[in-house]
Design goal:
mainly beta, Pnp Oxidase, Chain A, 7-stranded antiparallel β-sheet, 12 strands, 13% helix, globular
């Protein structure tokens, strides 16, 4: 199979992808040294009901990339509109991400957002290469839902359920 990606304009590809609304998550973990790490991901999906698996994609260039590859566990927090600014901070390199937001900690010390639309506590099942990203497959060990509605990412901005796009 030949690679035809050199014929595809990256701006056109990015624009096409932005036409697909996706949920927004903040994915967190605790490094072996106890340091908290996290990133914002809109590439998140359920993978399997039996066993309960989810996937989330992490940029290989992310500062936290090696920590998540080494982590045994991670938490997926489904973002609500009240977390939009926090999600922006978690998408920014060099930010002290945990200085903002109100996090709680599970028994292993992994940070989670108590007011998230949903929280999924996962064990890293597998990390699969995927171009400039890695696909983290997590076995869900605990899941809970909150009261808030999830926020979406669409055409470069946060959107709320029920809102009409301009």
């Amino acid at each position: 199979m030949t690679d035809v990606s050199h014929d595809l304009d990256p701006a056109v590809f990015r624009s096409a992808l932005s036409s697909f609304p996706s949920g927004v998550t903040i994915v967190t973990t605790r490094g072996e040294d106890g340091t908290l790490h996290g990133f914002t991901a809109s590439s998140f999906a359920s993978l399997s009901l039996d066993p309960p698996l989810v996937l989330v994609c992490l940029d290989r260039g992310a500062t936290c990339f090696p920590v998540f590859l080494a982590a045994e566990r991670f938490v997926v927090n489904v973002v609500t509109p009240s977390h939009a600014e926090l999600a922006t901070r978690f998408a920014t390199k060099g930010e002290n991400k945990f200085a903002y937001g109100t996090f709680e900690f599970d028994e292993q010390g992994h940070p989670l957002l108590p007011d998230a639309a949903a929280v999924l506590r996962c064990e890293l099942e597998q990390a699969v290469p995927g171009g400039d990203h890695v696909i983290l497959i997590g076995r869900v060990r605990e899941a809970r839902t909150g009261e808030g509605k999830p926020v979406m990412w669409y055409r470069g901005d946060f959107r709320h359920l029920g809102e009409r796009a301009a």
